[in-house]
Design a protein that fits this description.
Elements: H1 3-14, H2 20-30, H3 34-45, H4 50-54, E1 56-59, E2 62-65, H5 78-85, E3 93-97, H6 103-111, E4 117-122, H7 125-135, E5 141-144, E6 161-164, H8 179-184, H9 198-207, E7 216-221, H10 226-235, E8 238-245, E9 250-257
Helix pairs in contact: 1-2, 5-6, 9-10
The structure holds S-adenosylmethionine.
């Protein structure tokens, strides 16, 4: 290890970075000069998420753009990709709501190149910008709006698979989150209201207008909230099943519309 690398590793380790060696290697590879490297290390020590500094995140083998302030996709969201892909068919209409940088849409399009009509939507214009950069090259379309608000009317009643990792952190728990999330991800990406289910509640209730009988809805949740997420789906006309993947540490509820 060179002296420069060594110094970066030491600073990151002293700041509490668990994967200091790996992070140092990524920062050194990304920085174009010593000044930029120093600024990146300073920002990382101040708690900025590594992925926002690099400008990208690796998600299921794909490199996705992550603009500053946008929610960084977590690996557990790979569970949504696995569940959704089981319901795809040639020409399926797929929507990712509350898409952030659109990790699920990007992974599905990469698995089914040119074979899906894929839409993604988010209320945050910065997230929409990142999502567009990720989906445009793969043939997906990104719109801005509150839940279904930006989607074209013609999709009503014709979505085959709807996936969403909507915010689900109860408002009172935001202050307990790691500093990286609290200080550097938009609060609208995290805050799910008093019980954490406000956005899910609206999304699941509205979804029945957009999904025909037999269509699938897949929503990320936590193990603690899973029963309530499933209950929201049952009340909205779905048969709901809780899915858990311990390797990914992911929990989701999957519903099929009656
Ligand atoms: C937990 S983040 C997940 C982002 C992305 N799905 C992922 O897994 O990386 C939740 C996202 O929902 C978006 N959001 C929050 N409220 C929304 C609403 N009412 N309509 C659309 N998007 C919303 C936020 O801007 C944020 O990008």
């Amino acid at each position: 290890m060179g002296a420069a690398t060594d110094a970066v590793v030491r600073r990151l380790r002293d700041a509490g970075c668990v994967f200091a060696e790996e992070e140092a290697a990524l920062l050194l590879a990304e920085a174009t000069d010593p000044q930029e490297l120093a600024a990146m290390v300073r920002a990382r020590v101040d708690g900025r998420p590594l992925e926002q500094l690099l400008g990208w995140v690796a998600f299921r083998g794909h490199r996705l753009v992550v603009d500053e302030g946008v929610f960084v996709p977590r690996q557990r969201t790979g569970l949504l990709v696995e569940l959704a892909s089981a319901h795809l068919h040639e020409g399926a209409t797929v929507v990712e709501l509350c898409c952030g940088v659109a990790p699920v849409g990007a992974a599905l399009l990469a698995e089914w190149p040119g074979r899906l009509e894929l839409w993604a939507s988010d209320i945050d214009p910065v997230a929409v910008r990142s999502a567009r950069r990720n989906l445009a090259p793969l043939g997906g379309t990104v719109v801005a709006g509150d839940l279904f608000g930006g989607l074209p009317d013609r999709l009503r009643g014709s979505i085959d698979v709807l996936v969403a990792n909507a915010p689900y952190v109860p408002s009172a728990s935001i202050s307990l989150m790691p500093r990286e999330a609290r200080d550097h991800e938009a609060v609208i990406a995290l805050d799910g209201g008093a019980d954490g289910l406000d956005v899910q509640r609206r999304l699941i209730a509205a979804s029945s207008e957009w999904l025909p009988a037999g269509a699938h809805l897949v929503v990320e949740t936590s193990t603690r909230q899973a029963e309530r997420t499933a209950g929201l789906m049952e009340s909205a006309g779905y048969s709901a099943v809780i899915r858990r993947d311990d390797d990914l540490d992911g929990t989701a509820v999957e519903g099929v519309r009656h």
